[in-house]
């Protein structure tokens, strides 16, 4: 069973590496944010899988902390995205009309 959990954790890590392509090539900020959420969720999954092994209680604690911090990242992104949209609107208003 140890090998199965380790194999699943490795598969999830490969999933994160595939997501890096979207971070680099993502056409919009929202695409990049969704991949960042994928990283967080997958990271929690990997830590929980590894915590199921002998002596993995500290990993479980770290996974819980990551899971609790996920909503904070959502709020930070929304504030950043709304702020950048407002700045773009202000910049368009300040441009001279032709």
From TrEMBL:
Cellular component GO terms held in the UniProt record: plasma membrane
Keyword Transmembrane helix belongs to the record: yes
Pfam families: MrpF_PhaF (PF04066)
Membrane topology: Multi-pass membrane protein
Residue ranges of the TM segments: 6-24, 33-52, 64-82
Record flagged with keyword Iron: no
Keywords for the protein's UniProt record, in alphabetical order: Cell membrane, Membrane, Transmembrane, Transmembrane helix, Transport
Molecular-function annotations in GO: sodium:proton antiporter activity
Domain of life: Bacteria
InterPro entries reported in the protein's UniProt record: MrpF/PhaF-like
Compartments where found: Cell membrane
Family: Belongs to the CPA3 antiporters (TC 2.A.63) subunit F family.
Name the record gives this protein: Multisubunit sodium/proton antiporter, MrpF subunit
